[in-house]
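Before relying on records like the one below, remember that each one covers exactly one chain. Contacts with other chains, cofactors or solvent are not represented anywhere in the record.
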Amino acid sequence: MRKNTYLHNNHEVNFILKGFTSILIGFYLFCGAYLIKSILNGFLIDDHLAGMFSAEIIELVALGILFLVFLFASLAVFFAGKRVAKRHQFKLWNGKTKKMAFRYLFLIAFFSSLLVVLMNVGLIDFIAPAFLVSYGLILFVLKGDSSRKKILALSGLAFALGCLCFFIPDYWSSAVSILGIAHVAYGIVVN
């Protein structure tokens, strides 16, 4: 019974980022980067369908893909937590999980607004590096003390890839794809 009480009050168990959840998030990141890169490459070709759209429509499509990646990744984390809560027969939403969910939504809103400001100012080359650095910071901030050592590698990789993209802006799709593959590897290794 004491173990279930610990699990009920532990937001790290309720919202897990390992196993199949991490594999799904990696798959979403990889597919999102591939779709955006293929749309941008198609925009440069005259005979391609994406070449017929305006730059504003391409921006909206890319933002829509980013929103879907965020939504599906968040839903993967939520349903994994719900599955763990159901298995251990306790509520998913307690004081700690509500606090962590609020921090998560606040950080996502803050970094999303930062990315939109960068886009509106015209600093397009800094969007992907800012995303990768902010993703690394979100992973670092939201994980608790006991699992920080495990997630530190993934967080550090995202931060390092973001810093690399500041110097090589065309490397963004490869960096996000590497992060997606790293999430899949993390999900397979950490179970």
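Residues 2-189 form one domain.
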